[in-house]
Every structure is written in C-alpha cells, then in structure tokens.
Amino acid sequence: MELTMNQDKNAATVLRARKLNKSYFFDHSSLSVLHDIDLDIRRGEFVAVMGPSGCGKSTLLHILGLMQTANNAEELMLEGVDTMSLNQSQRTAVRRERIGFVFQRFNLLDILSAEDNLRLAFKIRGAQASDAQIKEVLATVGLSERSRHKPQQMSIGEQQRLAIARAMIHRPAILLADEPTGNLDSENTARIMDLLVSYNKEYGQTIIMVTHNPELVGRVDRLVKMKDGRIVE
Predict the structure, then answer these.
(1) Global pTM?
(2) 3-state SS assignment for residue 12
(3) pLDDT surpasses 50 at 11
C-alpha cells in the first residue's frame, strides 16, 4: 500500500473519527474505555478535551496519535488517510511525520543538551538541522540561553517549553498535548498556554489538548467534554 497524505493544506477537516471503540480484554473479563466516539477536528482549531479521571481522555488522545489502536472504528482519518488500514510501519511513519506529542512528563533525553534533544528530533525524521535552525527554534520558546543545558539543569517550565519545541520542530499536521501543564505552577502554566496559543494563532497549528484545568478552557476554540468513555458535549 502506498501511503499518500492529502496535500490540500486548506482542507477543513484534519482529523475525523467515527464510531471509535476501545476495550481491554483480560482472562475472564473486559473493560470498555471508549464508546462510539465521533469527533471532527478542523484545520487550525485549538480543542480542549476535559472530563473526570478515568473517562478515557488520554486513551482517546493516544489512539488519535496512533500510539494505540482502536478495537474497531467506522473511520479514523488523518489528512485523508484511513489510519485504521495502515500496518505498523506505516502507522509509525505517519506518527513521525504528521503528529507532534507533548506529555505531562516531558520525555526528554537527560543525557543530551537542549540543542541536542532538538537535533535528535530532526534526525529521527531523516533531516539534518543547521545551527541556525536550532537557534531559531530555541529562541521561539525562550530558551536561547539554555541551549547547552541538559534537562535536569532546567526548570520544569523550561523542560516543557523544550518538549513543545521538539514536538513542533517539523510543523506537524496536528499537535496532541496530554496534560501539558499538569506538573506546572500557575506562572509556568500561563507561559505554556501562551506558547501553545501563539503556535495556534501565528502558525495555524491544529492542537488537541487534554486537561483537567478549567481555567485553560477560555483560551481554546472549542471544548469537548467526556464522561464514562463517551463524548457528552
């Protein structure tokens, strides 16, 4: 199967899910986590997903990001590609090229400096980063003076900004953020939100963010509420 992404960057819908379900199976029982999820994400939207713990928010995000698979779905499209039909290597290619991830735990490599974490992100995508590119990316997230620092030498707010820079380095079709401010104080939470909003508004970056923080909802375009594995609003 030849994998071809939709090249129409003005297409209204970046991601579409229909009747998406996820269950986990054990020896003598099963646990249903997602039930008939229907979701459309338009290009350039900043969408927040909220709901109580255990409602399936993170599982949904991981399936949309092709890190997990749905048990079944009528449709799960990303930029015109039916991701349900992809094999594992194709899923990996789409995930690497078209999806950016930001997590509550930053998943940075502690043995590498900030600039080398970014260089590695370029290398994983088969590209070679110039010093000028690295400097530009670090400046965008306010880390120009931290380029030689390793993550453990940085504050948690700085680490999350570096994680966002790494996720955005290839301008993905969609950025998925799972509780990106969950470990941060109010000052750093505001700064991370400023950064995400700036990427959304200045670059038209499509973002889906899972959050427990109701104070952040006023800064996004749309709120999706979940309860018991279903979208309720």
Answers:
(1) 0.90
(2) coil
(3) yes
